[in-house]
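Ticket #4471: structure output looks truncated?

Reporter: J.K.
Steps to reproduce: submitted the chain below (465 residues) through the standard prediction queue, then opened the result file.
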Amino acid sequence: MVDSTQVGNIGGYAILTWGCQMNEDDSAQMATLLEISGYKRVSADVADVILLNTCSVRAKPEQKVYSKLGELKAIKDARPGVVLGVCGCMAQKEAPEIFRRAPHVDLVVGTGQIDRIPSLVRRIQDERVRLVETALPDRKDRLDKRVPARSPVMSAGRLKSFVSIMYGCDKFCTFCIVPITRGKERSRPAVEIIGEIEQLASRGTQEVTLLGQTVNSYGKFLDDRCSFAALLKRIARIDGIERIRYTSPYPKDFTDELIDVIAAEPKVCPLVHLPLQVGDDNLLSRMHRGYTLEQYRGIVDKLRSSVSELCLTTDLMLGFPGETDAEFENTMDFVRGMRFDSAYMFAYSPREQTKAAQMPDQIPQKEKIRRLEALIALQNEITLEINASQVGKIYPVLVEGRSPKDHEKWTGLTPQGKTVNFLAGRDIDRQIVLVRAKSSHLWGFIGELPEAQASRGIALPVLAG
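Returned output as attached by the reporter:
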């Protein structure tokens, strides 16, 4: 690896990112590797290297990428030496189509090759060639456990950091493209993960979010076995790390051991994002999700009985092929009964190369949107009710800085992941402070420091979270 202290600036780079937290982490790794090689982050209009890190989970992000590539053609025409690259899931899935629709692209890099980006960029600059690198580990070869090489993010003082602990997915849900774009499930050795987080903590990181397509499947096929629950306990022992989050766990792999760790470890946040997708057993079976509603409900019951101040969130999909009115209403009824704190809700989007895309009885887009709007209205009502019921409680808030919408206020998250904006008469940046939820809204709370109400003679409720 090149020592960044010995390399002068050799150009500017810009990275544009679509998609999930794993894509954000991949982009951070690309940036770190480029900076180690001597590049400097700049805006796209003056960059020598422009990378688009893409998502293929739904059609809309892909459409945005092609639109952006069209816009960037003007930059490429004006400055032919600019290296224009497409990275990530969309690159993995359709490299030939990218070159066909955007022949001004120089580089296509898949999800398993991001550590090679600096050398590939240099080769394009030196040889003026077009390159494609999309190799993934052989899915049939369990001895092939390659993961992209990582370097701790260079930016000192990052309060919160993503850390990918595993790559790929072996679930093969019928609607999902991820096993194709990310490859087979493979975990990083625990010692590497611990070492990376220790370095992050030494540079000021207080909160880490562990990433994986099915993050609680971590540890399978490792030479030195380590379960996800055991990994959480090891991370909780790292000095300087105050909060541990993770996304997204898979219901089928949610163990009693994991529930015990969430309940017992104060640093592990009481926020569980447990993707459901639909509230109908027939649809779950056709999606190949591997669990029933009864099993899902059983996990939630254990979590709610064990984890104090639990916040439960989920993913919900409407309009899966063949979804009947009755099955849609079953999802609505399940959501009413489960009372999630919030949900990420979306309409099914056919993905080529998946089984669901070939299924009959595709739901018309207009009907998908109608169902989605009804679900959003229901879940928003539940979210508002839950947040209103928590007004008056005091939460430890990790302060992230000034609120972007009101610079008079500070902002941060509760352990449950809910946003709190509040006034303070002193500098409290990067501190964990106790804040009372004074009023609520869809995304969280307006709060106040306890001393503000204590000065008015108001008795303080018991600390929550």
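Triage note (M.O.): checked the attachment and the full token line is present. DSSP finds 14 helices and 19 strands in the chain.
Status: closed, working as intended.
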